[in-house]
Design a protein that fits this description.
single chain; about 160 residues; mainly alpha; Hypothetical Protein Yqey, Chain: A, domain1; Arc Repressor Mutant, subunit A; about 0% strand
Length: about 160
């Protein structure tokens, strides 16, 4: 089943179950996807008629998780624990649609494999390596932490 359909089905199920917190998060996800669909249509071309694909949805979900992690951290620092907990519960709902995150050892192995596959030899080849990783592991790793790892191995 396509990711868009899974989100739609989960939204309908949350409505049936009257699960307000899950429903509100799923509505946020749907709104973010629809916003991206509209942006694609406005740009014209590149699948604007069809809308954003599964890879695009994974990127949207990954960005949403990152935003909520930052918000939760800020709320904790400000002593607003109830709001931090709400952000964490939203992260849990969003992560239901993301593939399993790679652990440190798997990430390191993936970086090594991407370096070998692209034939990267210096820091100038970092873009090729990151492109290969994004193509293969979108939604499975945090590219903010992978970037410095690639840089260290190439530098």
């Amino acid at each position: 089943m396509e990711l868009r359909e899974q989100i739609s089905d989960a939204l309908k199920q949350a409505m049936r179950d009257k699960d307000r917190s899950r429903l509100s998060t799923l509505r946020l996800i749907s709104a973010a996807i629809k916003d991206r669909d509209i942006a694609l249509r406005a740009e014209g071309g590149d699948g604007g008629d069809v809308g954003v694909g599964s890879d695009g949805i994974l990127m949207i979900l990954g960005k949403m998780v990152k935003q909520r992690q930052e918000s939760a951290r800020a709320y904790e620092e400000g002593g607003r624990l109830e709001l931090a907990e709400k952000e964490r519960s939203e992260i849990t709902v969003i992560e239901d649609f993301l593939p399993r995150q790679l652990d440190d050892a798997e990430t390191s192995a993936a970086v090594e494999a991407a370096i070998a596959k692209t034939g990267a030899e210096s820091i100038r080849d970092m873009g090729k390596v990151m492109g290969a990783l994004k193509e293969r592991y979108t939604g499975q790793m945090d590219f903010g932490t992978v970037g410095p790892m690639v840089k260290a191995k190439l530098g």
